[in-house]
Design a protein that fits this description.
The chain has five helices and seven strands, in the order H-H-E-E-E-E-H-H-E-E-E-H. By secondary structure, the protein is an alpha+beta fold.
Amino acid sequence: MAKGLCVKYYRADENVQKLFAPQKEPVGICPRCGEQVYEGKKNFYCGNRGCGFVLWKNDRFWLSRKKELTKKMAVELLKKGRVKVKGMYSEKKDSTYDATVILDDTGGKYVNFKLEFERRKEQAHDR
């Protein structure tokens, strides 16, 4: 009898699977399709599997600046499209700097980022 039940109910239907799925807290709204974005171990991903939107925590953009994309930063990027980041590393100058990181989603496989720097107060007064 047990074998018969296992064969018959090998796969649970979608409604039953949802009961056992862990509840994930959304981080924000996907800029591509409007679905919820969730945090994974290595990324922040769109709940719509067909969308393909992903923010990688270990993206080359962040690694080269010796930063990791945190949940707080991802929330801000998804909400406002930008986030202020302090202490990013510059290989050329071997120093750190502060800048605003702007989410530049072109709809491709990877998400791009742009940097925006605040004008120094001295430069603003000279003009």
